[in-house]
């Protein structure tokens, strides 16, 4: 069954995937996360789905180790929908895994233990670690959800999760590299920023072997990643601005409406109209019910 699962070849890589698609580095990361001491990369089986690109899982690394099916995903933007995405992914993965099994028989079909981790290094503030739950997306709150999926999200920006970084040198140096790219990109073109970061890291022994061996590809991928992050930030900023402007417009409209209501009520009072007469005026002016009109008049009626 395991042999049918294999690595995706047609996805756009990221620096994170380029680093941890190697079994040695992936095992180092797994051990750091789980406090384990596995020393044979041969016991690890990469098993990313062929159709991962269909679900936009371009950053994922999925692998089997000791009866655990691990899904690691790198994210540069916060995504609260990861539990739902992982549910779809793991269902397809297990479907492949159990393809030759008879799930309608009286014999229990054993499956690996699923584990989900997101490595976040976006520019938006996020805690050191948090658990994202599928049940948070349910339309109504359930005390004991019958279906649950939990995703561990770790902040891997430089300065965060220091214990994890000390246990996994590759992850720590990856964070140092990304930090330099972003730092230099504030004052120079992204192409120049990436070139400088790569050169400095090689000189200072940060991911030196990896960057030296794959320099051209890393530079190209880093530029693509940065531009993609910038585009996503612009889209989110535009959505925020649009929503804010819409909210302001609605607020102005509501304020004008309330101002007109108050003005009508004040005029009616100056004309010595009764409470009921004023409510009738408001009812006709705004085409509202008698009860609602009386409630609005009562709000301004001394």
Q: How would you describe this protein?
A:
This is Transposase. By secondary structure, the chain is an alpha/beta fold. The chain folds into two domains: 1-167, no CATH class; 253-300, no CATH class. 52% of the residues lie in helices and 12% in strands. The chain contains ten helices and six strands. It has helices at 15-20, 23-34, 82-97, 162-167, 169-185, 190-203, 208-213, 215-270, 275-286, 290-300, and strands at 45-46, 60-65, 68-75, 113-120, 129-133, 150-155. A six-stranded mixed sheet has the order 1-2-3-4-6-5. A hairpin with a 2-residue loop joins strand 2 (60-65) and strand 3. Helix 9 packs across helix 10 (290-300). It is elongated and about 90 Å long. The termini are far apart. 27% of the residues are buried. The model is unreliable at 1-11 and 51-56 (pLDDT under 50).
Features:
single chain; 302 residues; alpha/beta; six-stranded mixed sheet; 6 strands; 52% helix; disordered N terminus
Element string (H = helix, E = strand): HHEEEHEEEHHHHHHH
Judging from the principal axes of the Cα atoms, what is the shape?
A: elongated
The profile of the biggest β sheet is: 6 strands, mixed
Which spans of ≥5 residues are poorly predicted at pLDDT below 50? 1-11, 51-56
Q: How many strand segments?
A: 6
**How far do the termini sit from each other?**
79 Å
- Tell me the Rg in angstroms: 28 Å
Total domains:
2
Protein name: Transposase
Organism: Eisenbergiella tayi
Care to give the gist of this entry?
The protein has 302 residues and is α/β, with parallel strands linked by helices.
